[in-house]
Amino acid sequence: MVVTQPQHPLVIQRDRLKITWEKLPDDFSLPDDPVDNHLQPLLAEALRESLELAGLFSESMLIATNFGICATVADKAVVKAPDWVYIPEVKPLSEGVIRRSYTPRLEGDIPLMVLEFISETEGTEYSINPHYPYGKWYFYERIIQVPLYGIFQPETKTLDLFRLVDGRYEPQVPDENSRFWIPEMNLFLGTWDGQRSNLSTTWLRWWDSSGNLLLWGREQIEQERQRAERLTAQLRALGVEPDGGSGE
After folding, report:
1. Per-block average pLDDT, block size 10, for the chain (248 residues)?
2. The pLDDT value given to residue 44
3. What's the 3-state SS for 22-89?
């Protein structure tokens, strides 16, 4: 009788590759490439801000931009830094420790979603290179197995979203509003044309299950201002001054 030993949860054999989930050495040199343009960090910041203001971000989550996601493949460390990553739950760090990178399984959940923002100088978002150092598509799909992979092209205002099905990414079809339903987050993700940070362009935004846009901070302030003006007008129509005086 042959007894098969259970595989260690931090060691995986996939596609004839040995994948392990190990902490990067402290002296490992992480990529420090500058972003390709000023829009990329603004897109990432906008996605995070509305989640936080809607109360949909907790301390146990990790949302980051241009942040290294790591795996060790055939004893070689592989690091990719997506433009935006959402991880539902991570293990807390010791007090005073700063997270330099993230290794799934070892440090918490596999990322639920990674987003890449295509720029003129980038061309690796669709790369399926199966050899070290591996293409981004291959890394997210076959090594990390991220459930959702989004690729946004600001110039064409196009968002493509892919879901991992049986180990392969399948393109998702948006709804009639050109938005993608993300059941794991109970939110829609789509594009929106407008202004933020004195920049008029196409942004990625969230909508709740009822189709309500998750607002940014300045939008919440403007919404409250308009609500206060309407209330003031209603009170004056009744002959009441908001400061307590009389309209007579």
Report:
1. 46 80 79 66 96 95 94 93 96 89 96 90 79 94 97 94 97 97 98 93 97 95 87 84 63
2. 96
3. CCCCCCCCCCCCCCCCCHHHHHHHHHHHHHHHCCCCCCCCEEECCCCEEEEECCEEEEECCCEEEECC
- 171's tokens: 């393109």
CA dist 66 and 70 (Å) reads 13
**pLDDT (0 to 100) of residue 37:** 65
Contacts of 247 (CB under 8 A, 6+ apart): 236, 239, 240, 241
Q: β-strands 17-20, 180-182: how paired?
A: unpaired
Q: What is the DSSP letter of 125?
A: T
pTM of the shown model: 0.86
Q: Residue 42 CB: number of other CB atoms within 10 A? A: 17
| CA distance linking residue 190 with residue 203, whole number of Å | 8
Interatomic CA distance for residues 129 and 131, integer angstroms: 6
d(CA 190, CA 206): 7
CB proximity list for 71: less than 8 A, separation 6 or greater: 19, 20, 21, 77, 78, 103, 104, 139, 143, 144
Q: How many CB atoms lie within 10 A of CB 92?
A: 10
pLDDT of residue 9: 61
Question: Residue 43 corresponds to which tokens in the numbers above?
Answer: 């897109």
Angle between helices 39-53 and 217-237 (to 10 degrees): 50
Say what the alpha-carbon torsion angle 65, 66, 69, 73 is, to the nearest 10 degrees.
160
